[in-house]
């Protein structure tokens, strides 16, 4: 259920240059792929920002983020005990989207495709499906983008393929280069999250290769409210425009017009 609460940061750590995990006090009941809107109460901007719920345990939850602009810079600089307002969990996550699109609830083999920070949204799905067989294709520009490798290695029943554009780790290239070696008939579903150009390339690959496995895409639009009021987050679909914060962020690839 959607909650609004004021709380505080209980831990903040830098994972790699400009990438941070922030742990926030408060329990949140969510499904993988949902997100929270976070406001910094004592800062310059009253507008919140959306972040995927990365992990939750023992009455707190974490977000994993990269510094892009002024707001995320402030968050990265915010010490323990900084006051925040949280709205969440927001949006339709992967499990509800599977129901909406009538995709099997109990897949036995799942393909995950993450681009950079997209791993923040997919990680909790990989934990959710811990018993199932899984393959993760994780791409970045350089090895510094391939974050939380120790956590990924601890996920059971997971084979990992890494790609980097500069060849500093894994296969040199982009995630779609690895897809040519994937035996799609073995998979029941594919979940992806990453920058829009990656999602566009995946959608084109699916169409070109006539891949039958349903591909659920978590989209990241600019958002102001996160709860369906401001209409700032529209996504063009084959069935008119949809709100990324309510109907999404998870969409079936075939309905997206990118
Ligand atoms: C549902 C959802 C979940 C998200 N989860 C995460 C997460 O787990 N970790 C994370 O690091 N980020 C996540 N984001 C993106 C995050 O909200 C933005 O990085 C953040 O709002 C940037 O704020 P800023 O003020 O620091 O940057 P701004 O000054 O607002 O922007 C700086 C630069 O980043 C670009 N940018 C900002 N927001 C977005 C966006 N949503 N999509 C594409 N480009 C953007 C801008 O075009 C600009 O070039 C998510 C976004 C959505 C919608
Ligand atoms: S962010 Fe306001 S309607 Fe989606």
Task: Please write out the topology.
Layout: E1 3-16, E2 19-25, E3 35-40, E4 49-52, E5 55-57, E6 60-66, H1 70-77, E7 83-90, H2 94-100, E8 109-115, H3 119-128, E9 133-140, H4 149-153, E10 158-164, E11 171-172, H5 175-179, E12 189-193, H6 196-208, E13 215-218, E14 234-237, E15 240-243, E16 250-252
Parallel strand pairs: 8-9, 8-12, 9-10, 10-11, 12-13
Antiparallel strand pairs: 1-2, 1-7, 2-6, 3-4, 3-7, 5-6, 13-16, 14-15
Flavin-adenine dinucleotide (FAD) binds at residues 35, 49-52, 63-66, 68-72, 117, 120, 220-223, 249.
Description:
This protein folds into two domains: 3-90, Translation factors (Elongation Factor Tu (Ef-tu), domain 3), CATH 2.40.30; 94-255, Nucleotide-binding domain of ferredoxin-NADP reductase (FNR) module (Rossmann fold). It is 19% helix and 36% strand. It contains six helices and 16 strands. The protein has helices spanning 70-77, 94-100, 119-128, 149-153, 175-179, 196-208; strands spanning 3-16, 19-25, 35-40, 49-52, 55-57, 60-66, 83-90, 109-115, 133-140, 158-164, 171-172, 189-193, 215-218, 234-237, 240-243, 250-252. The radius of gyration is 18 Å and the shape is globular. The protein starts with a strand and ends in a 6-residue tail after the last strand. The model has no long low-confidence stretch (mean pLDDT 95). The structure holds flavin-adenine dinucleotide and FE2/S2 (inorganic) cluster. FE2/S2 (inorganic) cluster binds next to loops. Residues 223-226, 228-233, 243, 245 line the site of FE2/S2 (inorganic) cluster.
Helix-strand topology string: EEEEEEHEHEHEHEEHEHEEEE
CATH architecture of the largest domain: 3-Layer(aba) Sandwich
Mean pLDDT: 95
SS strand fraction: 35-45%
Largest sheet: 7 strands, antiparallel
- The termini sit apart by 31 Å
Total tally of structural domains = 2
Specify the overall morphology: globular
DSSP E strands, number: 16
Q: What is the helical fraction, as a range of percent?
A: 10-25%
Low-confidence stretches: none
- What is the C-alpha radius of gyration, as a whole number of Å? 18 Å
């Amino acid at each position: 259920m959607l909650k609004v609460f004021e709380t505080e940061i209980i831990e903040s750590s830098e994972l790699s240059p400009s990438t941070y995990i922030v742990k926030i006090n408060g329990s949140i009941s969510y499904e993988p792929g949902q997100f929270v809107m976070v406001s910094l109460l004592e800062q310059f901007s009253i507008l919140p920002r959306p972040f995927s719920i990365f992990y939750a345990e023992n009455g707190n939850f974490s977000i994993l983020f990269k510094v892009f602009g002024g707001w995320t810079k402030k968050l990265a600089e915010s010490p323990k005990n900084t006051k925040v307002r949280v709205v969440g969990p927001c949006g339709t996550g992967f499990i509800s989207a599977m129901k909406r699109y009538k995709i099997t609830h109990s897949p036995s083999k799942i393909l995950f495709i993450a681009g950079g920070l997209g791993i923040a949204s997919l990680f909790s799905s990989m934990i959710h499906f811990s018993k199932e067989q899984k393959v993760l294709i994780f791409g970045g520009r350089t090895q510094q983008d391939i974050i939380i490798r120790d956590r990924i290695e601890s996920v059971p029943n997971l084979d990992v393929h890494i790609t980097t554009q500069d060849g500093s780790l894994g296969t040199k290239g982009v995630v779609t280069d690895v897809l040519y070696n994937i035996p799609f008939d073995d998979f029941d579903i594919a979940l992806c999250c990453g920058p829009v150009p990656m999602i566009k390339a995946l959608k084109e690959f699916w169409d070109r290769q006539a891949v039958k496995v349903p591909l659920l895409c978590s989209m990241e639009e600019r958002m102001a409210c996160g709860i369906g009021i401001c209409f700032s987050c529209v996504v063009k679909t084959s069935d008119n425009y949809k709100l990324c914060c309510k109907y999404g962020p998870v969409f079936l690839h075939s309905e997206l017009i990118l």
